Amino acid sequence: MYTDPIADYLTRVRNAIKANHRVVEIPASNLKKEITKVLFEKGYITNYKFEDNDVQGTIKVALKYHPITKIPAIRNIDRASKPGLRKYAGMGNMPRVLNGLGIAIMSTSKGVMTDKEAKQLNVGGEVLCYVY
């Protein structure tokens, strides 16, 4: 049993990218599904599939690489808020990832979204991870 399922999700994606895998399987949860949708919408992954074959189900994520140079679309993916130290951002202090080139995935009262979307909707929340 792991204590931080989001960190496990990010670590599985990070390890699959370093090993140049095309697809990675991750145990599913509602929050992980929402993070996967945000990564797909922003173009960091090629595709995803939710499989409900057992109690929990799995998420199959197709990772995205440049067709010629084989460089992954996700250069770095880091956990921001940890179980021992939660990080929250209000409207006035949204995080900037790589001076605006990356995204911060946030859990807000209106759902899981990027920092830019949260700023447009004028909401704050917990900063889950940084992606660039």
For the record, the CATH architecture of the largest domain stands as 2-Layer Sandwich
Order of helices and strands: HEHEEEEEEHE
CATH topology of the largest domain, by name, is Ribosomal Protein S8, Chain: A, domain 1
* Mean pLDDT level: 94
Radius of gyration: 15 Å
- In total, the number of domains comes to 2
Low-confidence stretches: none
Task: Tally the beta strands.
Answer: 8
**Distance between the ends:** 29 Å
CATH top level of the largest domain is: Alpha Beta
Based on CA inertia axes, which overall geometry fits? globular
The share of residues in helices is 25-40%
Strand fraction: 25-35%
| Largest sheet, strands/sense/barrel | 5 strands, antiparallel
Number of helices: 3
Subunit structure: Part of the 30S ribosomal subunit. Contacts proteins S5 and S12.
GO biological process, one term: translation
Family: Belongs to the universal ribosomal protein uS8 family.
Keywords: Ribonucleoprotein, Ribosomal protein, RNA-binding, rRNA-binding
What does this structure look like?
This protein is of the alpha+beta class. It has two domains: 5-63, Ribosomal Protein S8, Chain: A, domain 1, CATH 3.30.1370; 77-131, 2-Layer Sandwich (Dna Ligase, domain 1). Helices cover 25% and strands 30% of the residues. It contains three helices and eight strands. The protein has helices at 5-18, 30-41, 115-121; strands at 23-27, 45-51, 58-63, 77-79, 88-89, 103-108, 111-114, 125-131. Strands 4, 5, 6, 7 and 8 form a five-stranded antiparallel sheet that branches. Strands 1-3-2 form a three-stranded antiparallel sheet, covered by helices on one side. The radius of gyration is 15 Å and the shape is globular. The mean pLDDT is 94.
